Amino acid sequence: MKLAWATDIHLNFLDPRKRAAFARSVRDTGASALLITGDIAEGPSVVPLLRELHEALGLQIFYVLGNHDYYRSSIGDVRAQMEALCSGSPGLSWLHAAAVTALCESTALVGVDGWADGQYGDYHASPVSLNDYVLIRDLALRRKGSRLRVMRELASESAERLRGALERALPVYPRVLVATHVPPFEEACWHEGKISGPDWLPHFACKATGDVLLGAAEAWPDRRIEVLCGHTHSEGVASPRPNLLVRTGAADYGAPALAGVLEIEA
Length: 266
Ligand SMILES: [Fe+2]
Ligand SMILES: [Fe+2]
Description:
The protein is of the alpha/beta class. The protein is built from seven helices and 13 strands. The strands form three sheets. Strands 5-6-7-10-12-11 form a six-stranded mixed β-sheet, with helices on one face. Strands 4-3-2-1-13 form a five-stranded mixed β-sheet. Strands 8-9 form a two-stranded antiparallel sheet. Helix 5 runs parallel beside helix 7. The termini are close together. The site of one fe (ii) ion has 7 residues, from loops.
């Protein structure tokens, strides 16, 4: 099978004509499913725009959510909407809450949203302030230290889910694809051809999921783990272990495009 992969498509910035053109570009690849690694839309628009994309495509959509998908809402509200959406639409699969998906006999797909957790770079010295810290109810906290605690809780919740999914997938499948929004390593935190610096890393990378991936790669040296992520809108490849590859996908606001089409061979 072919799996089309897109990241950071930010559909809420597009008019219906451009959204239809994006769906056509996915269909034209002949892929049998689409994987989206987050930043699909914003809290109030993510459900209607996922439904619209699914109808236009007529293909299975696997996805995780990115930080923008929680904008103008809260973590709890958006997650409750995802559970309701996916339980009523088998063609939509939010990987964060889904079982291990077999893409073929030898390849499984798992995913978690991930969250920047302030553990790489220098969070306390960083002057960077994202819209996340205004537009996501849980993170709109005046004190930097309180916000960091919430970011770390979100990241470790993703990391624990990822650990469970890998423990179920790796004994069975030689190749495991991991979808996540936030790059799990410094060396995967690409920005315009370079690795993000200490001001941006705390907001752009998730060490909690990275540590789980390193542990899994070391525990299962004969398995191959391939991570697909986004968030920085810049592409690059990193290989922190011989059997662990991380691809960060490119994206442009207002011009969504595929980051790749993966061949999944039995
Ligand atoms: Fe994005
Ligand atoms: Fe993002």
